Amino acid sequence: MELIFLSILALILSFNIGANNAAASMATAYGSNSISKLGSVSLIFIFVFLGSAIGGENVVKTVGKELIPPTILIDNIYYSFLIVVLPLSAILIANILRVPIATTHVVVCTIIGIGLANEEIYKSSILQIIGWWIISPLAIWLMNYGIGKYLYFKIINYLANNYEEKKVDLVLKIALISSGCFLAFFAGANNSANASATLVSLDLISPKDAALIVGFFMALGALMFGGRIIETVAKGITDICLIRAISVQLTSGVFLCIASIFGIPISLAEIITSGIIGFSCANSGFSRTIKNTNVSKMIKLWTITPILCVLISYFLAGLIR
Predict the structure, then answer these.
(1) pLDDT of res. 156
(2) Which string of DSSP letters, residue by residue, matches 193-218?
(3) At 32, is the secondary structure helix, strand, or coil?
(4) R_g of the chain, CA atoms, integer Å
(5) For labelling alongside 231, which of 97, 225, 307, 321 has CA 20 to 30 A away?
């Protein structure tokens, strides 16, 4: 009975991850008015599911078996409930605040807290993941800031002087939607591990099957409730034109692709929002961007949530040990 309840909670978590996190993959396409909100979430549904089904296995293995010894969860089923309930609570708060939360950080930090309480963690895997967490958003921010500051207007002038406006607009919109699909695919590949980690750790399901099932519920969550987060990410930080949107999606997609191949869980919401913030800094300046209510709220939430998850997880794991 406990395992059935745990499986149901894991599917609910995957649904919420899709609504809060995977939805950000099409935020720039929607923000630049290249596609409707319904069109955005529909494409997310298709490509998140495909990405999870085809490429989700590596990250599922990492989160499910390579952060702490799986025997810790096997010996105490309540740890598995903790890994599901804490992220669900964090996502609920994020949905109320209408901001994209780094769900990957919440799940991984909850697992780390459990490992620390039991004095058993795989340090090399965890340090590698934390390194990616630091480098990825900074690199995405820097690349998009550089493009926005030094290349954006040069590209605009070149296209305006050499091609017809209608043709340029059509090609850019096709490129933008295509890059959004690319990003959504690897969002599914990378983020499906967040909800399936406990099921894989307990050997209830194989990593491949877990990625397939969880991927479907993630895609469904994005389709049904992803519109709210798309609105915040796309239009709550800065105005996004086609070239800026393509830049954000491609740079984010490439990082997500590489991370997925190596089995590294990283936050889609964090890297894509970092790219948008990079353009905002180039366009509006650092001080004005930081003063933006949405930006400051996101940064605070991203900073506080992982730390709280480790501490709360460590404390609760100690109580039920």
Answers:
(1) 85
(2) HHHHHHHHHTTSS-HHHHHHHHHHHH
(3) coil
(4) 19
(5) 307
Mean pLDDT by 10 residues, the chain (321 residues): 82 82 70 78 88 89 92 90 88 71 88 94 94 94 94 87 86 89 90 83 85 86 74 58 85 93 90 88 87 79 84 92 76
DSSP state letter for 121: -
What does the pLDDT read at residue 44?
85
Q: Are 300 and 59 in contact (CB under 8 A)?
A: no
Cβ neighbors of 274 (< 8 A, separation 6 or more) are: 136, 137, 138, 140, 141, 144
CB 194 within 8 A of CB 268: no
User: Which of 165, 131, 182, 128 has its CA nearest to residue 242?
Assistant: 165
Contacts of 6 (CB under 8 A, 6+ apart): 77, 80, 81, 84, 198, 199
State the DSSP code for 98.
T
DSSP output for 243-295: HHHHHHHHHHHHHHHHHHHTT----HHHHHHHHHHHHHHHHH-HHHHHHSHHH
pLDDT of residue 100: 65
Alpha carbons within 13 angstroms on the beta-carbon side of residue 313 total 30
Query: pTM here?
Result: 0.87
End-to-end CA distance of the chain: give it in Å, rounded. Answer: 21
Helix then strand count (H, E) for the chain reads 17, 0
- Cα-based distances in Å from 206 to 57, 78, 202, 213, 257: 9, 21, 10, 11, 22
- Are 194 and 104 within 8 A, CB to CB? yes
Placement of tokens 């780094």 in the chain? 102
Compute the distance between CA of residue 130 and CA of residue 128 in angstroms, rounded to an integer: 6
Question: Half-sphere exposure of residue 156, counting CA atoms within 13 Å on the CB side?
Answer: 11
